[in-house]
Amino acid sequence: MRKIINMSNRLKSRTIIFIVLGFAVISAYGQENLFKNHGFEFVSKGIPQNCISPDYWSGIISQDKEIFRSGKASAKLLAKEKSGKHWGRFMQPLTVKIIPGAMYRFSMWVKGEGEFVLGVLQYAPANPGVSNYKYFWQEKPVVLTNEWREISYEFTIDNPDINRITPVAEVRGENAVVFMDDQSFGRFTKDGVELNTSTGHFMSYPGGEYELVFKLAEQKQSAEKRDIGMMIISPGDWKDSVEVKIDDNGVGRHVGVFPPDAQPGSWRFVGFVKDTGAVAEVLCELVDQSTYDEMDATAKKIRVKTPMHILYIGDSLTDYLRGNNYVDKVNFWLSKYNEKVSFRNAGVGGDLITRVLSRLNGIDGGPSAYRQAMYKGLFEPKPDLIFILLGHNDTLLRIKDGKEILAVSPEVQEDTYRKTLTLLKEKTGAEIVLVSATSSVYEICKQSNDKRVASGGTYFLFGKPEVMENFNRVLKKLADELNIDYIDVYQPMKDYPNKPSLFSPADGVHLSEKGNRIIAIELLKYLADK
C-alpha cells in the first residue's frame, strides 16, 4: 500500500481556527442498514440472495424455513471438511461508501453448534504481483449455543487506499452449523461524538485557495481535549494528512491552497476524530481556471433576496454521487454569493414519474410506495422552487409479444405529470421547473442490452434517442400549456464535443462528475436569467 506522504510544502496550510456551525454529519450519511436482504427472506435457487460462497471456500449456505428468529426464514451455514479442516464461509458484496477514520458495525443474530466469527475483506486498487485484499476478523470466535444471541464486529478503516469492503462470516468445527437472522451493516459513532462540516462540496482550480470549516460536538464533555485529523486524498496517488488542534469550543477552520500542478478531478477532504467513528467529508471538484471562472461569472448574476429552499426530485441521476453531483454543485455556487439558500435532494434510484406520484400520495396516508421513507419530511420546510429531472427509467424499453414497449407510455407520462404537478402546487405553492431527460451514450446502452439478451437475459434497453426525445417533447408541451419553466439539458449534452466523458463508461446513462457539472451549469444559467 502506498503510504501517506507529507505534502506540506506543496499544499500550503495557513492557520487553523475553528468556528461554530449547526448541522450534523449523521444527516449527510445516515445510519441505514446496508443489507437489503437483512432477514435472508429472499432467495435465488435456494440460496439467500447476495450470499456467495466461491468453490475455493468451504461450506454450504442455504435458506432455512424451520428455524428463524423473525420473519419466515433464516440463513443456514454448514461446515464441510476441506484441506484437513472443517469450516464454512460466505460473503455478501455491498455498496459501501468508504470513509477513512469512520467506524462500521457488522452484526447478526445467531445460534447453532461450533464456533462462529464475523469479518470483512478490505480491498485496495490492484497492483501487479501483489494481493489487493486482506481479511480482518473478530478478535475471538464466538461459541455457538442453541439460544439466539446477537454478535457484532466493529472496525475502522485506517488505510486511505481501501476502496471496497465485503462482509464475510465463517463457522468452524466438525459438524458445525450456524443459523443466522436479522443482520445489519452500517456506520456508527461512539461516545456521542459528532464532527460536522459547513459544506459537503465545493469547486476550485489549481492554485486556488480554499477554506474548510468543521465543528466537533459531544454529548458529554470529555476529560481530555480531542484532536481532529484531516486526510487529503487526490484523484491520483498523492495524499496528505494534517493534525489540527481544536479550541475550547471544539470548532475551527482549515485554510489552504491547491498546488499549481494539482490534478483536476475529485478531491476528498476527510476530517475524523480518532477512535470515535466521527467523520465529516468534504468533496471538491478541481477544474481548469477558465471553467471555474465561467461558472463563477454565472453565479455572480444570481441574487436571492429572500430565503429560498430548493427541492430536487429525480431518479438515480440525482440520487447517485451525493456530495459531488449536480445538486451539490448548484448549491455551492448559489451559497457562494447568497446566504439564504438551502436544499433537499429527494432523488431516488430507479424512479419514474409513476413512482414519484405514488410516493407523494403515500405522504398523506395513501398506500406506502417503493422506498416511501425517502420522502419523509419532504415539505419540511416547504420548498420555494422544485426541479424535476426524470426520464431514463420512464423510457426503458422491454419486449412483449415481440414488440418493444415503454415502461411509461406518452399518455401515462402526460397524465401522471399533470397529477404530480397539481399535487406539488397544492402542497407547496412552489415554482416548479421541468428539466428534460438527459442524453446518453446509446451505443453503450445497446451493447449492454445485446450482450445480456445473447446470454439468455432479459431485454432492457435504455437511452434510445428517439424515445428520449419524445419524452422531452411531452414535457415541453406540458410546460407550455401550464405556463411553467422548462430547461433543456438533453441538447447541450448531445452536442458536447466529448459526449462519452459525461457518462459512466459502464452503462452510458449515469453521469460522470463532468456530466453532473454540465447539468449544474444549465441550472445556474436558468437561475441567472430569472
Short descriptors:
five-stranded mixed β-sheet, alpha+beta, 22% helix, 530 residues, 27 strands, disordered N terminus, nine-stranded antiparallel β-sheet, 10 helices, globular
Radius of gyration: 25 Å
Uncertain residue ranges:
1-30
Number of strands: 27
Report the structural category: alpha+beta
- Biggest sheet layout: 9 strands, antiparallel
Return the average pLDDT rounded to an integer.
90
Q: What is the straight-line distance between the termini?
A: 51 Å
Q: Tell me which oligomeric state these chains represent.
A: single chain
Q: Tell me the overall shape.
A: globular
Strand content: 25-35%
Q: Helix segment count?
A: 10
Give helix % range.
Answer: 10-25%
Brief characterization of the structure:
The protein has 530 residues and is an alpha+beta fold. The chain has helices at 25-29, 289-300, 316-319, 326-337, 353-363, 410-428, 442-454, 465-482, 490-494, 513-528, and strands at residues 13-19, 43-44, 47-48, 60-64, 74-78, 80-82, 85-91, 103-123, 133-137, 142-143, 149-156, 164-188, 193-197, 201-204, 209-218, 228-233, 239-244, 251-257, 265-273, 278-286, 308-314, 341-345, 385-389, 397-400, 403-406, 431-435, 485-487. It has ten helices and 27 strands.
Q: How would you describe the overall organization of this protein?
A:
The strands form 6 sheets. Strands 4, 5, 6, 7, 8, 9, 10, 11 and 12 form a 9-stranded antiparallel beta sheet that branches. This protein is an alpha+beta fold. The protein contains 10 helices and 27 strands. A hairpin with a 2-residue loop joins strand 24 and strand 25. The N and C termini lie far apart (51 Å). The longest helix has 19 residues.
